[in-house]
Amino acid sequence: MRIGLPLLFAAFFLMVTGSQGATLDLVVRRGLLNCGTDNTNPGFGYLNTRTGQMEGLDVDFCRAAAAAVLGDSQKVNFIVVTDKSRFTALQTHQVDVVFAHTTIEPERESAVGVDFLPINFYDGTGIMVKVSSKVTKFDELEGATFCTTQGSGIEATLASAISRMGWRKSTVLTYENLERLFIAFNAGRCDAMSTDRSALVSWKANSARPADFKILGETLDKSPFAGFVNQGDPRWRNILRWIVFGLFQAEESGVTSVNIVERLKTADPFVQRVLGVTGSVGRDFGIANDFVAKMVAQVGNYGEIYDRNLGEKTSYFLERKGTPNAQWKDGGLIYSPDWK
Length: 340
Prior knowledge:
Blueprint: H1 5-17, H2 22-30, E1 33-37, E2 40-41, E3 45-48, E4 53-55, H3 57-70, E5 76-80, H4 86-91, E6 97-98, H5 106-110, E7 114-130, E8 145-149, H6 154-165, E9 171-175, H7 178-186, E10 192-196, H8 197-206, E11 213-215, E12 222-230, H9 234-252, H10 260-263, H11 269-274, H12 281-285, H13 291-298, H14 302-310
Parallel strand pairs: 1-5, 1-6, 8-9, 8-10
Antiparallel strand pairs: 2-3, 3-4, 7-10, 7-11, 7-12
Helix pairs in contact: 1-2, 3-13, 9-13
C-alpha cells in the first residue's frame, strides 16, 4: 500500500507532538477518517464485488465514526488490514481507528499498546469441517490439520486446545486472510477451519455448496470484538468510546434513522441530551453536539446496523435474541452507560 505525503506528514505530526487531541485535529484537518477494516469477512468487513462497495458491521462503525466526527458518513477512507497487519497499521498511523473483528486481549493493551473501545459484538472461536469427513465433534479431530489466519489469537487457542487434548500429531497452518483461509480449507489443505463462529457462518453461507460444510457445536473460547485506537490520546479514545455508546443508546431509546427527525422534537430530557438538543456532551469532546443524531440519521442505530449486516434478512442470520448481542433490557450485554 502506498502512503501519500499527507499521511506521512500526519504520522510525523503525531509522533512529534504526542499531544492529547492530536488525532482529532488531524482527522478534522484532513477532512477524512482513515478507518482500518477487513475486506474478506462477510457481515463484518467485506468488499461486495457486485456493487464495488464495502459493507458489514465493522464498515458501518467506520461510517458512523465519520458521521460523528466530520458530519458525513461518506468521509471515510477504508484501509484494508489483516489480522497480522491491523496493529502495525495503527501504530504507523496509516489509520486513525480500527474496526476489524478484533478480540479484546490483555497483551494487546499491555504489550501492543492499543486502547480498546466498547465491545460491539460477542463471539467465540469455532471449528468448521466438511460434512464428508463424518466428524461431528471436536474430540474426533485428533491428528487433524487445522487452519486459521496469521496473527490472530486463534493460533494460541488452537495450540492450547491441542495440548489440552494431548494430541501430538495435530498441526496448525496459517493464512493471510479469511479468503485464503477458506480457499485452503475447501481445497483440502487442512481438515478443519478455525476462526470466529460468525466468520464461519458467513463463509459457509456464501460458499457455492453450503450443505457441504458443518460448524461443530463446541466453542473453544470467548471472542468479544471491539474497535481500537492508539494509546496516548485519551481525548480521541473517549470520543470513539461514546460514538459506540451513542449507537447503543439510540437503539435503547428507540431512536432510528426512520424517526430521527421526529425524535429531535421530543420533550424527553434524556433523549434530548443523547441527541444533543440540550447539554454539551459533543461540544465537550470537540465534535458536533448532535453527533449521535448525525450517526443515526446517516447510518442507523446499533440494532439497524446489526440487522442490515447480520440479521434475519441476511444469509447469515446471527440471532440476537437470547444471546449476549441483545440489548441489556432483553437479557444481553449491549449496554451504554447513563447519559445524565
